[in-house]
Amino acid sequence: MGNVQVVRDLYDAFGRGDVPAVLGAMDADIRWSEAEGNPYQMSGEAFVGPDAILQGLFMKLGTEWDGFTVHPKDFYDAGDTIIVEGRYTGTYKATGKAADAQYCHMFTIKDAKLHVFQQFVDTAQMQDVMGAR
Fold first, then answer.
1. Which of 107, 120, 121, 119 is nearest to 26 (CA)?
2. Residue-wise pLDDT tens digits, 77-106
3. Strand order of the sheet with strand 26-33?
4. Which among 102, 108, 112, 105 is positioned nearest to 78, based on CA atoms?
5. Interior/surface letters 72-89, b for 16+ CB within 10 angstroms, e for the rest
6. Domains assigned to the chain
7. What does the alpha-carbon distance between residue 119 and residue 88 come to, in Å, rounded to a whole number?
8. Residue 131: helix, strand or coil by DSSP?
9. Which terminus in the chain has less CB density within 10 A, N or C?
10. Backbone angles phi, psi at 101, to 5 degrees
11. Residues of the chain whose pLDDT is less than 70?
């Protein structure tokens, strides 16, 4: 299986709500970094390991948002690095505000597992929607 397919399968599993498959696609020591200024990563520290990602991010996305959806559009193959452009949509429950934000995800794949993740997103929009500014 190619690296683009590994990432496509990840998005498919996330879209189905298949969290065990999403976590199973990750290295045990994956480093997951949200964009600087993202309210979910204001500390600037990466989440390390699938459980940290589940507890520190995915559980919050599942409980704090209505209809949070990741819409991948374009996939770019750079060997061990896969770049994905797309959009996030959903409504943040605490504010009632809707997001429709462009994102870029950069994945590094090692031995057919997600090893490093870096998010780029309109953090000003996310902060506004989430009431963080």
1. 107
2. 999 999 999 999 999 999 999 999 999 999
3. 47-48, 26-33, 113-121, 97-110, 81-92, 65-78
4. 108
5. beebeeeeeebbbebbbe
6. 3-130 (3.10.450.50)
7. 12
8. coil
9. N
10. -115, 135
11. 42, 133
